[in-house]
Amino acid sequence: MTGRSWAPHGAISLVCLTALFAPRMAEAADLPVKAQATENVKVCAAYGPGFYYIPGTDTCLRVGGWARMDTYMNVAAIFSQGSAFGGPGYSPFAFPFRDAHDADYFTQGRGVAEIDARTQTDYGTLRSYFRGGAEWDSQSGPGKGPGPALYIERAFIQFGGLTFGYTQSFFDTGIGYSIATLFAGSNTWNTTAAYTAEFGNGFSASLAVEDAANRTTGVQATGVSITGVTSPSDFPFVSGGTGAPLLYSNYQAGQQTPDFVANLRAEGAWGMVQLAGALHQVEAMPPAYLGSAFIGSSSTGQWGYALGAYTEIRLPFIAAGDSLYLQANYSEGALNYAGLAAGNQNRLQAIGYIPLNSVGLMSGAYYPLADAVMGPDGSYEMVGAWAIQGQFRHFWVPQVRSAVFGGYVSVDVPTNVVGAASFAMWQAGVNTFWSPVRNLDIGAEVVYTAVDGSRPLGITNAVSASGGVIPTLVGGSANAVSGAVRIQRNF
């Protein structure tokens, strides 16, 4: 053998082929690669219809919502602040006054998205839920024109029997067959931290800590009653277009303790029964004229409470979908638990409706609302209230349903507080909805509302922080008919 190098014949062939095709292989590498097929969305049957697995995860998701248009005539919640809106022009009179300056109707468009995400874990289902959106109002506030607003109904997390976030108060059931929120009875959304224990066969119990601010009405200070009046010119706080103060002096202190809520519940194919109770702290600050360093420097507290009983009875033997709903509430120092709220998200400090005629004479009613009332000596007593409510829904045919509903609420203010006034309020209404296709509702509603008080409409001197007097309107009786038309598509 010489020292000349050599290679097997196959190796030479491989080298030649590599040299020949290497440029073309490089060109092929620059060509786009065909993408892999995306993972198909899979149905998640564990939580009911409409749920799908989020691709690449074990979380099930359902997305839905609704779009709605409402038209309210004579203002659906005519007795509450923020509902008797004046138009964008000038008027010296605000709530509770009504005159030709106020619109006879307003419209609202609202769109809401619903997102429900659930994941099965070793500790049970982990759930997060959101429902909210935005709305457009033809009157965005007293004396204002059209405008948009954000809207939220739910934002909560559930895990292992625990609930954290913003949702229906655990004192309530959230059942309602009417467009209007009835003044009698409790139906409030709130921020809560709760635990629910399931005992089987539809029995459960819940304990909740809920934000007291959403249930706090106030502490009313009153003074010496003076003569009644019949004309707006007799109101020094109305003349000149100031329109204030109509509300009482509010000595509500900052809330220190949340509300404690508990319920017992049983439900099944027959319907539902729930018993509920709540503790609500009433915090009042002493007036400065009684010697406190400055108003708001200290406070005293008492505990109010509320009780509620609810039942929904399903009546399929009359027609499929028929049901009867009943509610009864009692509160002492916790007025919002008995009702008198014009929506699921508000708490009122006054109820009233005072129509003004062409010569300026007044009639109607106006009553401040409070958890407690304070006398000139700084001591305060709880305000009691009780309410009953009934609703019945009937399906004439699967596409047409009607509901009749009504309620009565009585507010008992301690008689030894000068200038305070007890009153009662009741409502009755009827609506009918037509669903020409699935998930589309077209309906109209009429509601009669009346308030009857224990004293004539007139002026009471409320006590100011300095010990002076503030003229405050109180008393009277009034009634009104209002209506609403709703078109809503759920998806």
UniProtKB/TrEMBL annotation:
It holds the Pfam family Porin_2. Keywords: Cell outer membrane, Ion transport, Membrane, Porin, Signal, Transmembrane, Transmembrane beta strand, Transport. GO terms for biological process: monoatomic ion transport. The keyword Transmembrane applies. It is found in: Cell outer membrane. It comes from the Bacteria. One of its GO terms (cellular component) is cell outer membrane. Residues 1-28 form the signal peptide. It is a multi-pass membrane protein. One of its GO terms (molecular function) is porin activity. Belongs to the alphaproteobacteria porin family. Consists of 16-stranded beta-barrel sheets, with large surface-exposed loops, that form a transmembrane pore at the center of each barrel. The pore is partially ocluded by a peptide loop that folds into the pore lumen. Forms passive diffusion pores that allow small molecular weight hydrophilic materials across the outer membrane. This is Porin.
